Structure formats: structure tokens, C-alpha cells
């Protein structure tokens, strides 16, 4: 199952609607990436959504500048 290790975001279920208003099931999948991130000597690996990756990379840059 595709799920973010940080926020828990995963697959959602919805429906397609045609012009004739027919309903068919569909899935909305989260943008999950398998990544290994380094924090100095420490490394974190796992599956993260793109939003959490942006947050983590921003935090890495902030700590590197200090």
C-alpha cells in the first residue's frame, strides 16, 4: 500500500463522472517517493509524499545554514 511514513497520506477512493452523469469508481494515489535523506551522519530512509519531502529538504537547508 502506498502510504507516507511521515503524515500517513495514502490512496483515496472517488468517482469519475461523465457528461451523461454515469459514475465509475476511481482511485486518487498520493505522490509517494522512496528516498534516503542524510542529516549529517544520520540517514533516514522510507516512503514519503512530495509535500513532506519539500518540508524535510527545507529543514535540512535551514540547519545547514546555521
Automatic annotation (TrEMBL):
Belongs to the bacterial ribosomal protein bL28 family. The gene is rpmB. InterPro entries: Bacterial_rp_bL28, Ribosomal_bL28, Ribosomal_bL28/bL31-like_sf, Ribosomal_bL28_bact-type, Ribosomal_bL28_sf. Residues 1-25 are annotated as: Disordered. GO terms for biological process: translation. NCBIfam families: L28. This is Large ribosomal subunit protein bL28. The lineage of its organism: Bacteria, Candidatus Shapironibacteriota. GO terms for cellular component: ribonucleoprotein complex; ribosome. GO terms for molecular function: structural constituent of ribosome. It comes from the Bacteria. PANTHER family: 50S RIBOSOMAL PROTEIN L28, LARGE RIBOSOMAL SUBUNIT PROTEIN BL28A. Keywords: Ribonucleoprotein, Ribosomal protein. The keyword Transmembrane helix does not apply. The keyword Translocase does not apply.
Amino acid at each position: 500500500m502506498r502510504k507516507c511514513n511521515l503524515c500517513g497520506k495514502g490512496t483515496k477512493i472517488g468517482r469519475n463522472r461523465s457528461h451523461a452523469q454515469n459514475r465509475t469508481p476511481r482511485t486518487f494515489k498520493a505522490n509517494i517517493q522512496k528516498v534516503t535523506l542524510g542529516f549529517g551522519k544520520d540517514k533516514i530512509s522510507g516512503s514519503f509524499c512530495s509535500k513532506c519531502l519539500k518540508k524535510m529538504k527545507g529543514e535540512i537547508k535551514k540547519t545547514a545554514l546555521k
